[in-house]
Design a protein that fits this description.
Elements (H helix, E strand, L loop, with lengths): L1 H19 L73 H11 L14 E3 L16 H16 L11 H9 L13 E4 L11 H9 L31 E10 L4 H11 L2 E5 L13 E2 L4 E2 L9 E9 L18 E5 L11 E5 L11 E9 L5 E3 L8 E5 L3 E8 L9 E10 L5 E8 L11 E2 L5 E4 L3 E14 L4 E9 L6 E7 L1 E3 L3 E4 L7 E4 L7 E2 L5 E3 L2 E6 L17 H5 L8 E2 L18 E2 L20 E5 L4 E4 L8 E8 L4 E8 L6 E4 L7 E12 L2 E4 L6 E4 L7 E6 L2 E6 L7 E7 L7 E6 L6 E4 L7 E12 L2 E4 L6 E4 L2
Helix pairs in contact: 1-2
Length: 800
Amino acid sequence: MNQYKKMIAFILITLFLVNQISKVVYANEAISEESTNCNESLQEVIEGEESSDVNETETEITEEDDTIRVMGYREDDLIIPSISETYEANTSAKSSQDAVKAANTYTYVLNNSGDLPASYSSKDSLPPVRNQGSFGICWSFAALGAAEASMISKGLADKTIDLSELQLAYFFYHSAADPLGNTTGDKTQLLQGDYLNIGGNSVFTTFTLAGWVGAAKEEKAPYETASVSNPLNDSLAFDDDYHLQNAYWINMESDTQEVKRMIMQYGAVASAFYTDQTTTDEYTEYYNKDTFSYYYNGAYQTNHAITIAGWDDDYSSENFNLKNQPLGNGAWLVRNSWGNSMGDDGYFWISYEDTAFHSSSSKAFVFDFEEASLYDNNYQYDGTSGVNGYALNSSGSIANIFTASGNPEGEEEELSAVSFALFDVNVDYSIQIYNQLTDPTNPTSATALLASPKTGSTTYVGYYTIPLEESVILKEGEKFAVVVTLSKSNNSTTYFFGDSTYQNGNWIKFTNATQEGQSFRKMSADSSWIDMNSSGVTARIKAFTKNLEPVAAVSKENENIEETKEETKEETKEETKVETQQETQDNTGNDSETITEAVQYDMTDNSNMAEEIKKTTGLIVKYQSTSKIKIWWMKQNGVSGYEIYRYDSDKKKYIKVKINTKSYCTTFTDKGKKSGTVYKYKVRAFTKVNGKKVYGEFSTVLTTATKMQRPILVIYSLNKQARLSWGKVRGATGYEIFMSTKKSGGYKKLKTISKTNIIKYTKSKLQKGKTYYFKLRAYKVVKGIKIYSSYSSTKAVKIH
């Protein structure tokens, strides 16, 4: 009976989707015997509305005034499933919805438990409201507004951050091949109008940002220079300062509470609504300029992109126009892109009941960003921004095969993370990396590089970057495969995003120049791999690497650090006799050890002998961040240089990571490290005697750690209490909470929490009506010393 229900549900969904899809993709293996009518992969083609609000003629940016604004948001018809259920049909097809729910609903546990505050605003922590002028690229302002908010909320930027909306908009429509050349031939082609006025949406923008097109600082492509007749140099396409890590697409109609949680965690979300405004300072049928409130209750449509930075459950319905008031209280706080002359310094309120938030197509977008220095290279084949969904049976897999080529020195790279994109919710994933493929048509016909697959679960539709905790080293020219296996707890079909060539409406075309041997799909665990090139499809899998620094080859024996006694015996009596203690102890990782090397001289001829080299001393940390550690040691006179070693926990021995060939060069900066992670270092000096290296004693081992990421603090008031919560910080030993009655100073430590699983704290007995200020920092104890993260953003709360 249950299988019969599932069959009916899936057929109903497919009939609905077929009605919306403008072209057929390719046939694949049947998903199940019961669903033979559903054995075509799903494809969602987003059709842009040809809105009359989109101005296709070039205009100039105006000064801050009340001139007409071009909206420029192109509505998509993509339906985002609720995180508590799988795909639903059109809201008008209630029977289809009921069938889907009956067949596939299962309990979803919210990411964060606890009550949400009745009101919240990140307005005070965000940059000034931007002004898009009379160009129609609100979609770029909304996406980058959410990106800026995420950087601020994570402590990686402050209110001065300003990302270039022009750079994103220009290179969205003017494709450039990625630096590795893997997307050569891929392009997004504008079919009408110009890039500044044709419009866009957050769905397509997600995959542009995922390809590392954006985000650059404003100074690199100032918005004031925007003009159709003023093209940008292609070198700016990937000249970014920040990169997208994750993008979550959330159904605003069904998952309102989750949207609020995302605003608290990331500072803002991007969304869209329909506006009837033509100037920044006027009453309209739906906008009240006195109360800065807006409510539209007509047929669902959108034409303007915004960021939402807060809410108020008690915002009175009486604040809206008398002739057009919602039934209940409550509104979203919107950060617009029309400058500060509109609304309350650029902000206004939209009713919870606005039609924009009550459709199966209503969406909120989280754009989670990090600094661009996190990774050096992005291996990818999906060079367009189109949106296509494809099906897998539970435990089916997708894979991309890449060739390592990113290090400009021709040296090794460290595979640090991979990413994928899902048109599904609540999906379990398993990631494995392979190299030395024996069959180019089988991504798993090789050596598995991870001791155990990287596993986890997703919650939302969207794009996910998954850091690899286990180090994977890639050699120049080496082929490697990234394999992602997807499943769901109810064993239902899963859907992933792919890239392909198609035309969307009559305004945009996507071209994906896929090639044989790049991207593969395996419908189920027992199926064979299929090269998706035969259907012109590329899985949206990416691999991110860090370039490893080249090690200078000083002499032949330097190529092998572990000299042996047997090699020493081969030296002639006439040569300097360097007796090197075997480094088996060196490789144990014991912090208390001291490795020595005794230098013996031929007493009959010591005219060319160097003075005995001393033990390297004074090794300390000069600087540390979330991704770098800079160490320093005392200079030795008369030496040729120094060798720096870092302990490799996988190989369980010290590995040489750098050679300084100048005696005065007594620092080393270790880059690209993981936050909140312990690292061990030691250094030894060397000189040359008759062309051979003579070493001094190693320094005492220095054990330290990178700083943790800055905590993200969320706070609200309830019953004369301040309730604090924060996300768990990777690598933290504990947390310290500080409180003050004034923002600028006077902070006292309120609480030290030494258990890493505790990420909440309640301060009671506070004075009602008074404002308190809180901040938080994480710490890690290394060798009895606390290493602190930066403080969280200061949060103010008025006690209720």
